[in-house]
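The following block was generated as part of the benchmark described in Methods. Ligand: magnesium ion.
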Amino acid sequence: MRKSIATVSVSGTLTEKLAAIAAAGFDGVELFENDLLTCPLPPEEVRLRAADLGLSIELYQPFRDFEAMPSPDLRRAERKFRVMERLGADTLLVCSNVSPQAVDDDELAASQLRLLAERAAEHGIRIAYEALAWGRHVNEYLHAWRIVRLADHPNLGTCLDSFHILSRGSDPIGIEAIPGEKIFFLQLADAPLLAMDVLQWSRHYRCFPGQGTFDLAGLVGHALKAGYEGPLSLEVFNDHFRQADAGRTSHDGMRSLIALEQALRGADHPAEPTGFAFAELAGPVGGVLTALGFTRTGAHPDEPVELWEQGEARLLVDTTAADPSLLAVGLETPDQAAATEHAASLLSPTMEAPDGTRHSFPDAAWRDGFAPSLPAPGDITHIDHVALTQPWHHFDGATLFYRTVLGLRPQESLELPDPYGLLRSKAMSSADGRVRVVLNLAQVGAESMPLQHVALATDDLLATACRLRAEHPELLLPIPCNYYDDLDADPSLRELGVLHDRDEHGEFLHLYTVTVGRVFFEIVQRIGGYRGYGAVNAPVRLAVQHLRWANDLAARHQGASA
Ligand SMILES: O=C(O)c1ccc(O)c(O)c1
Ligand SMILES: [Mg+2]
């Protein structure tokens, strides 16, 4: 299907937007009036610029507050038609009236829209009438369609917008009753589920399909069944997108539409990950790994990379870097070729995540080069999850990457106050829970590098904590006593500095190590079917990490001035 995007969805001036949109491979744009008004080029030049880039101008918008008025403003409409002729745009979006002067009268609305369509026809222009979710009298897509049917003019059709339909909880099945040729345009936006005024929700929180919680594939399926043949067009109003890099946003938009088309074909992910093959760290972390019970079981013959193992937990360590960090994650899959090809189909041949971590589906022979010896037995059984901090303006893009390219499913999303902001986090996992990734949103103004961590699983956390406390107390992140005063759990947790959580499925015990470079480790024990990540305790961790960071900084200052 043809792919289009509204110019309002990306940042920049009109010419910057067009260049970024074209580079991402779109076929056309919805041109927003504001973008034209602020552009120094005459409409003819904009038309040429778009054509040179291979973009058609699919739609011009918005034309507001026209229908069901005491007297409709046709002169204003004529001015739009003339601009559209110069642009070479043949469809004008009219959104349902929000003016207090609008009259609740479908017959009047239909007769005035009919008049508008007659005038538009003289210019070869079509009118696409859209119900805004907050329209004064018309705010349901089937209501807009009834008015279009009543007006009965070939140059008048309806524009469907997934946000307006799904945000109101309307059932999209009704789309199938609209003749396909009367659906002049289809706008797509997803959104996170928020309990707020629908206008604010629409203007600030829309996102690309797959980044929110709406069932876009279901809605588009109904439109295709109705016989819709126009473009799939992204129309996103989003405070972050307005500031983010236009090229990256356009690229994400294209990825979301490719994934949507795959979902429509029933081809989600051909080979979902089934486990962590390894996590790859950089820097001098051998000391910490040894303390945690890992054995260095091999070294790469040609590269400065070591393999460290314990149970089924495998860590690669690139020893050349000075500062410890988490570089990459290798994922097991039942079909390496299919998984890699799938990533490429979603414009991610290198599988680099928006936060810079590299992901891969290594083939089964990846360990052969390491000539590994057997690891000593230890408490750690496997990698439970990795947690990656995302730059604030890449959070939605990261969600899309992990969901589509890696085939993970969104789990809980949380917002928790911490000492210096609000921690926003989203967990994603494979269907069987063997691969789990937690995305954390970097705090604006966070003073240190965004932290990443690897969570390692054990079957007996209290035993692991006892051992670490006896052998490497300096390695454990100390937990404030006050935390335990409010905790209804085993008193030994306090002595061992272990944190606790429970959900309806089970319980969770965990502890953290201190940070090395920008990484730390977590050791976790899931009891029963606990599904979470102990996120309620993250603010405690962040507070302690911040204090330690500030103390280190002060000590270094003192050292420098001494
Ligand atoms: O927020 C708005 O006003 C607005 C305008 C045009 C649209 O197509 C839309 O979905 C919303
Ligand atoms: Mg719209």
